[in-house]
Amino acid sequence: MEPNELLNYKEPAPITDKENPFESMMERFDVAAEMLGLEKGVYEYLKTPVKQIIVSIPIQMDNGEIEVFEGYRVIHNDILGPSKGGLRFAPDVNINEVKALAAWMTWKCAVVNIPFGGAKGGVRCDPAKLTPVELEKVTRRYTANMLDIFGEDKDIPAPDMGTNEQVMAWIMDTYSMHMKRTATGVVTGKPLIIGGSLGRREATGRGVMMVTLGAMEKIKLKPKETVIVVQGFGNVGSVTAQLLQQQGCKVVGLGDVTGGYFSKKGIDVEKAIEWVKTHKVLSGFTGAEKITQSELLELECDVLVPAAKEDQITARNAPKIKAKIIAEGANGPTTAKADPILKEKGIIVIPDILANAGGVTVSYFEWVQDRVGYFWSLDRVNRRLERMMTAAFNSVYETAELYKVSLRIGAYIMAIDKVAKTLKVRGIYA
Ligand code: GLU
Q1: Measuring CA to CA, which of 116, 126, 186, 218 is 20 to 30 A from 399?
Q2: Full-model pTM
Q3: Which CATH architecture has domain 49-188?
């Protein structure tokens, strides 16, 4: 190619199902905003993040070399209270994704009616390739960079993809060292011994189970007659599969990064959990036959739970999905382009901002317990979670019926309306 031709040369657009996650969020936001008749200024206010922070995280690796990672924190909105949201460690995380995830947290907290705004954080790294020492350094340096942002009354991180209880403990410790006091309430999803809450680890999966049972009841599906497929076998997917099986449902498909696993007569989820405890992944699991990721999503079933990552159900595979209910355990597993196809097929989609809100709900309980210094029994945590998830499910359902829209748009309408009304009452400071 000649140099002048090179100037005009445009890479052909890659064939991909990935949508820009922020735009995907905004497409739904726009539909809900229009139905609510949101005024232009309020619309602009709600779509714009309050703060976006990008930091560099230089680390001396175990081999003595310095590597520089990039870290993000986006506070989408804090009008309902301190901002809340997880911290993601992943090799492909970027500011755009974090922005979308932060906005989803704003809507999620509003849907379950907890006094938090929405935020999200990320560090572009592959936690599987870091040694424990390097992981600790990344976490502590990230936290040190965020000392002005984090705070019990300001912004409270939690686990998300690639982070866990241990990472939360390092955040709590680093923040506490700088503040010269033990600040347990600055982060949630911590180990029990430093102020974590009973039931927090299982909370997201438990919440998914609760709203799934709620949707099943609406279409008169009894647990004993219900066939389930779960994509993702981390904290959310494994607990959802386990709890739905305990309710009497038959789990015929499971999946993780290594592929899909299918058994027509049902998979023993407890055995799969045991397998993953020793082997880390489902690969080699003998209780099911191996299938592909796309076959897994297209299996014959009543309920499909995408609990892995974004952009799994797309315009390309939506026409082939056979489930009657989709319960979104992950954030953003369905692209905006797939929504109308699923609606046309009459599939009930329990949207992420409702379905996986059990996690942040028990994070709220953890924060309350830390602040009061009085810790609840598991029974109390689970009963209160059930009360809040049921109330949220019913309100979303009623809003969707009232506006004659999907549960997703119903949930957005509810959330946007709440945040917009709060803005009206507080007013704009200037
Ligand atoms: N990362 C979880 C979510 O996406 C939990 C957030 C939290 O507990 O603050 O909902």
Answers
A1: 116
A2: 0.94
A3: 3-Layer(aba) Sandwich (3.40)
